[in-house]
Amino acid sequence: MPTNAGAASKSPSAKRRWSRATRVQAGVVVLTLALVGGQQAWDTRQEAQIPDTLCDGLLSTAAVAPGFAVSEFDDEVRRTPSPGSPAAWCRLGELVEVRADLLPIAREEAYQVTRRVDATSFPLGPGLEGMAGPGEGWLVLPCPKVGRGDPVLVTLSFRGNWNNGTDADDDRLRLARWITDAGRRISARAGCGAESLPEPALPAADEAWSADLWKGKGDPREARRLRKAAGYTSRPIDTGGLCGLAPATLLTPAEAEQVQAWMETPRNDLVYTCQLGGSNFLSPESRFTVVSGALRAYAPLDAEPGESRARGGASDSTWTAGTCAGRPAVFTFSAEWVQARPDGVRRGDRVETIFRALVDGYAKRAGCSVP
Fold first, then answer.
1. Residues 84, 191: contact at Cβ < 8 Å?
2. 101 falls in which pLDDT band (50, 70, 90)?
3. If we measure between CA atoms, which residue out of 350, 349, 358, 308 comes closest to residue 331?
4. Which residues of 22-43 are buried (b: 16+ CB within 10 A; e: fewer)?
5. How far apart are CA 311 and CA 296, in angstroms?
6. Helices 168-190 and 220-230 sit at what angle, rounded to 10 degrees?
7. CA dist 207 → 7, 41, 117, 266 (Å)
8. Average pLDDT, the chain
């Protein structure tokens, strides 16, 4: 009885074609598995080359690793903490640098920290004496059981761009976590005997961006975006006075043309800075600063207390001391834009008048006592 040959069997040529296709598919599968297996083996070897910690145990690799290539983890260690000595210095390539020293030894570094704090720096949070900016953080670490019990200044700086798309706010939090982790490790290895450090809790960024600052100088929305990415909290003088502490009526018309905006660090009792400047820039030399706590002795002072002193004819500086929240504090002020008035009032006297108004405003807000 006849049967359906096409259904019961294949012709020799069809069998050869099916056999070749099967071999090709099988080869592809085998090659794919080999590539996947090879990649996994390579990844495993690469991971095995990355230690759990960097900088001789000062930093956690897991905290630093996201966004960086393996080759960028080469570190240069010059000093490591040991029992009775919290001194540390390490650099990860050209990206990250960690330093730690007892404060009397780290005098110059402490001085530079007070100069570099600007409106991009946020306090680390309750129980932590330190701040973090987009590229730099610092922490005063208690160390009562080492030497005279002097505190340790830990600094951490970052000199690159994040590769994982984070913004400035995330950068500050990341640096805060790095420096707090490094502080814990330094404290343990030096035998500081201090209480454990809490997790950092940075305040939320101020969203009160002012489109008026860049009016007529491009898209206001882009201006807000750029300022937010940089961490600035800028406000116009005409709505917030001087740093929100003194009335804008203190300015002469000529000064008001130069000083149109201000920005400040989030309010805290460590290092507070308010910078005053023009509509499309904020001069770091024109600023009011309050330094308290362990760094108070290292505040940049360019004049005698209560005396305005010109620096090269470009700016005047003055300072005074007081107490804020029971802690000694130093108030400083430097300005490039203050001018002598037509009625004969000297520039130095004008600096003192504006400075005293800022001090009084801050003292009222923060509960300070200033002679």
1. yes
2. very high
3. 358
4. eeeeeeeeeeeeeeeeeeeeee
5. 22
6. 0
7. 74, 47, 20, 12
8. 77
Distance CA 345, CA 338 (A): 11
* pLDDT tens digits along 10-58: 555 555 555 655 655 655 555 555 555 545 544 443 444 667 788 888 8
Count the alpha carbons within 13 Å of 175 in the hemisphere toward its beta carbon. 35
What gap in Å lies between CA 332 and CA 322, rounded to an integer?
11
Q: Which of 296, 204, 223 is nearest to 261 (CA)?
A: 223
**Exposure string over 282-294, b if 16+ CB within 10 A, otherwise e:** bbeebbbbbbbbb
Asked whether 140 and 294 are in contact (CB, 8 A), the reply is yes
Residue 196 burial (C-beta neighbours within 10 Å; 0-12, 13-18, 19+): exposed
Tokens describing residue 79: 């000093």
Cβ atoms of 272 and 108 within 8 Å: the answer is no
State how far the Cα of 352 lies from the Cα of 308, in Å rounded to an integer: 7
Length of the chain: 371
Confirm whether pTM is higher than 0.70. Answer: yes
Secondary structure of residue 219 in the 3-state scheme: coil
> What does the angle CA 198 – CA 328 – CA 244 come to, to the nearest 5 degrees?
85
Q: Which structure tokens are listed for 95? A: 């990206």
- C-alpha radius of gyration, the chain, whole number: 30
Asked if residue 197 lies in contact with residue 92, where contact means CB atoms within 8 angstroms, the answer is no
Residue 122, strand partner residues: 132
